[in-house]
Amino acid sequence: MSDQDPAAWMTIGELARRTGVSTDLLRAWERRYGLLAPRRTTTNRRLYSGSDALRVSLMQRYLAAGVPAAAAAERVCATTITVDVGAGPAIAPHEVAAAHAELRTALDAFEETAAQRVLERLFAAHSRLAVVRDVLLPYLRELGDRWEAGSIDVAQEHFASTFAEARFMAMARGWDRGPGPRALLACPAGERHTFGLTAFGIALHARGWRIVYLGADTPAAMVAAAADTVPPDLVVLAAVSPARFDDERAALRTLATRWSCRFAGAGASDATSARLGGRHLAEDPITAATIVAAG
């Protein structure tokens, strides 16, 4: 079963309003049958997902059909239920290639409006997370390669990067709102490549999480200070260079003793993450957000 609504995390009161089942009965179903699977935040607050709402709806259907409560709950718990808020199907390679060619032509010539039209066409046909995953992030990697190879100049690279950054941050508006778990995102000291981290935050927010975004070049001490102010359920640090993690190894290890930490980006690895006391997010940012949200 799947639900096309993103179904952000909700309190039991919100779940009751959505399903029409009283909070007392929801608690009873959770206690007696394990029907619901709430997530607990660092403050021990219970939050319920779209999958929980679907379980309640299915439970109601069985009860309406005359199935006893215990048997109905057993059937619901045996049913695989997921909430589909993923990035959507992959964009066809030929469409990606065409979009990249159009973006190169427009942005190399400093034509922002033409580049925006390319994105508008893509967003009209595909989910925004699919566009980020399949078009924008690969384009930005290619942009860096072209700059290193000398095929574009600094002005062209800066213009294209600024264009992409503005679009990413537009998608990030309001990502601190909602009742869901909180993720604190940052790049370690000296790291200025933020696109992957921002994309991860956008995707994680789409799955009901609240985002506190510190951005580029954030020393571990500043990450810790922010975590003390707004206690996160998860801290994610991303870097392109392994040196960014090594430079603050002791401080990052201390951070990981206090908070659940994940390490991402080309500079992270299973070994590096283990040394720092956290876990490695090896997948692309959109897939990584799906895995984190799934618990």
From TrEMBL:
Protein's UniProt keywords contain Repressor = no
Q: Mind telling me which InterPro entries this protein's record contains?
A: Cbl-bd_cap, Cobalamin-bd, Cobalamin-bd_sf, DNA-bd_dom_put_sf, MerR-type_HTH_dom, MerR_fam, Meth_synthase_dom
Pfam families, from UniProt?
A: B12-binding_2 (PF02607), MerR_1 (PF13411)
Where the record annotates domain HTH merR-type, the positions are: 9-78
Q: Which chain positions lie within coiled-coil regions?
A: none
The keyword DNA-binding appears for this protein:
yes
Instruction: Name the residues that span the membrane.
Output: none
Domain B12-binding per the UniProt entry, residue ranges = 180-295
The alphabetical list of record keywords is:
DNA-binding
What is the protein's given name? MerR family transcriptional regulator
Q: Which organism is it from?
A: Conexibacter stalactiti
